[in-house]
Amino acid sequence: MDNLYKPIWDKVKTPLLIHFVDNPPLFAWVEKEYYDFTGNKNRLHEILNQQQYLQKHFDWFSHAKAGERFECSPQNIHLNAIGEDGFTWTGRASGMDNTPRGRDAGGFNKILWIDAISQQALSARCIAQMEESLGNTDAAGKWKTIYNKLKDKINELYWDEQDGFYYDVAIEDKQPCRIRTMASYWPLLAGVASPAQAERMVKHLLDPQEFGGDYPTPTLSRRDKDYHDQTGDYWRGGIWLPTTYMTVKALEGYGYHEEADRIAEKIVRQQLAAYHGIEPHTIWECYSPSSNEPSTEYGRRARPEFCGWSALGPISLFIENVLGFYKVSAPRNEVYWRLNKEKGRHGLENLHFGTTTTDVVFDGTNTVDVSSNNPYSLVINGKKYAIKPGTTSIILK
């Protein structure tokens, strides 16, 4: 993270160019997740109180103007803030290169992008939570106010009650652009949707004719005229692990744990099948929405050896949703496990969080064996167990 902050905000010279400075603003989300796993308040103090990297990036993103240039980047900025209503963006800068978003409004610069403003809301929410962790109540309150303002704007301008969906919005007339993509699930990750709104969004997500089925989370609705069924043609239906992971975590935030786990397991199984069935045997940049194969970009297979974001499947989704270790909190000294006995013997060894290292293994029948160097609480399917240093056997009832 510092390799991004220091060139952007401290103007530190580096040979590592930042391709798009205006890529999705996910720094605060990452730092919040890192803090949850490490409990490292010194890190929070440095980035929030001393360097203020997260606040600087949030403020810049809020007022960015297309054409700006950063010394650490070969690209001009594409992001453009449109007052308080949101942002225009581009496919490449947003990460969704050949998305048809903006198709019916005249182009990328004719719409307000639902993901950009929602990612800003997510950032404000995470900054507020981290300030609370440091005991900075005034700062936390300020960022809660910023978050609530963004939340209100998103629900006022981007929510379409008729369809029960968050859409991009045409700048000219503020009408919804009815192109459904996975970008519309960022408001759920940011906690912007009400439970009723989330329920309607989940219906679209589980619909086999839209985003559900045997190969869930295609990046473009199967009902869209630009949807490419065979390979997904990159962002025209391709399954991308970043948007899949975001959506799975968004579902968990609204209590849709079973749905999240099912989606995750289908995607991990698809990756595994593609790994075994396609040469080279590798992790791919993105995947087909209809088969156990990679997606394509300009007619060729999307990139192999892509353990950047695509490793979210065999690592993060596998641990958090297939195995079920969905939350770890070093500050609270707790591990949360959604244990599925039907999966037989499974668990984790050498799980590290804070200063704790632990093994947690279900024996396949009725016992969980735990070893740890520190005491902590293990929450299994909602029931809390006190773990002591050494070994512990838990008989499940």
Task: Explain what this protein looks like in three dimensions.
- With 397 residues, the chain is α+β, with helices and mostly antiparallel strands.
- The protein folds into 3 domains: 190 residues, Alpha/alpha barrel (Glycosyltransferase); 129 residues, no CATH class; 61 residues, no CATH class.
- Helices cover 37% and strands 16% of the residues.
- Strands 10-11-15-16 form a 4-stranded mixed beta sheet. The chain has a 4-stranded antiparallel beta sheet with strand order 12-13-14-17, with no helix packed on it. The chain has a 3-stranded antiparallel beta sheet with strand order 3-6-7, covered by helices on one side.
- A hairpin with a 4-residue loop joins strand 10 and strand 11.
- The chain is globular and about 65 Å long.
